[in-house]
Automatic annotation (TrEMBL):
<feature type="domain" description="UspA">
    <location>
        <begin position="1"/>
        <end position="136"/>
    </location>
</feature>
<feature type="domain" description="UspA">
    <location>
        <begin position="149"/>
        <end position="288"/>
    </location>
</feature>
<dbReference type="InterPro" id="IPR006016">
    <property type="entry name" value="UspA"/>
</dbReference>
<comment type="similarity">
    <text>Belongs to the universal stress protein A family.</text>
</comment>
<dbReference type="InterPro" id="IPR006015">
    <property type="entry name" value="Universal_stress_UspA"/>
</dbReference>
<dbReference type="InterPro" id="IPR014729">
    <property type="entry name" value="Rossmann-like_a/b/a_fold"/>
</dbReference>
<dbReference type="Pfam" id="PF00582">
    <property type="entry name" value="Usp"/>
</dbReference>
<protein>
    <submittedName>
        <fullName>Universal stress protein</fullName>
    </submittedName>
</protein>
Length: 290
């Protein structure tokens, strides 16, 4: 059974944009859509049965109304709905586990036009085992028009970035979009230099050519697998977050990776994903990888 594209809906303009984004993506990929509402339970002893019943009716009406609206736009799209009344973050993480991807609305944006992630959104992005896409309330279908790239950040060796690149190539193929693959590099600290490392750099012709070869090597298997996806390779000195944000404004989607491992303080988003989530003006997909 194919994994659905799943969207969290809560009645906000941001979640409506995320549901609309998810519906378009489901149509492109030929996948079903799953709409999920997650309500936070009231503290024990404070909620009346009537209030709980009213909340349940509201959730059902919200899901039914969203389903009707999206079905009118996409008549052939298969849509399922589910309402939960337990903890939002844990439930959304569980929903993401069975999804091709999970789309969530951002909580608006600030003076720097980036995403404002609430605590639930941060926990879901940090813990989900599948890609999570954050969508702003002002996202529109027109932003996905031809001419706008899908941008992906590549770092590390080919194995490190395989999941991120696969998602980016698959998304670009479904959208018939060009893919811009970005690799940022920086000068190593002085203590990292050694006669052996300098000799390798000299043989490679310097650091930038070496970084270009590393990017080309990581892209090679995916270019072969998705030959119809045009690719631009972009290598630039600077921090990964800054370089990605410098090329992201005209993009229709920005794809970044997140190491799927827990630290002593729990799961973390990572510095690159954190930077683009807080400052990107287009939807951002965060893809976990090993």
């Amino acid at each position: 059974m194919p994994r659905p594209i799943t969207a969290g809906v809560d009645g906000s303009p941001e979640s409506a944009a995320a549901a609309a984004w998810a519906a378009r993506e489901a149509v492109r990929r030929g996948l079903p859509l799953r709409l999920v509402h997650v309500g936070e339970p009231a503290p024990e002893g404070l909620a009346l049965a009537a209030d709980e019943a009213a909340q349940a009716r509201w959730a059902r009406d919200l899901l039914a109304g969203t389903e009707r609206e999206l079905s009118a736009r996409h008549p052939r799209l298969s849509i399922a709905t589910q309402a939960h009344d337990d903890g939002a973050a844990d439930t959304l993480v569980a929903e993401a586990h069975d999804a091709e991807l999970l789309a969530l609305g951002s909580r608006g944006h600030g003076a720097l036009v980036g995403f404002l992630l609430g605590s639930v959104g941060q926990r879901v992005v940090a813990a989900a085992e599948r890609p999570v896409v954050l969508v702003r309330s002002d996202d529109e279908a027109g932003a996905e028009a031809a001419g706008r790239d899908v941008v992906v950040g590549q770092e590390g060796d080919p194995q490190d970035s395989a999941a991120v690149l696969e998602f980016a190539f698959r998304t670009a193929a479904a959208r018939r979009a060009r893919l811009r693959a970005v690799r940022a590099w920086s000068l190593p600290p002085v203590f990292a230099y050694s006669p052996a490392s300098l000799e390798l750099l000299d043989e490679a012709g310097g650091m930038e050519p070496q970084e270009k070869r590393a990017l080309a090597l990581a892209l090679a298997p995916w270019r072969e697998r998705f030959p119809d996806v045009p690719v631009i390779e972009h290598v630039e000195i600077g921090s990964a977050g800054q370089v990605l944000l410098s090329v992201a404004p005209p993009a229709q989607l920005l794809v970044v990776g997140r190491r799927a491992r827990r630290t002593a303080v729990g799961a973390r988003i990572g510095s690159v994903a954190h930077a683009v989530l807080h400052h990107s003006s287009c939807p951002v997909a965060v893809v976990p990888h090993g």
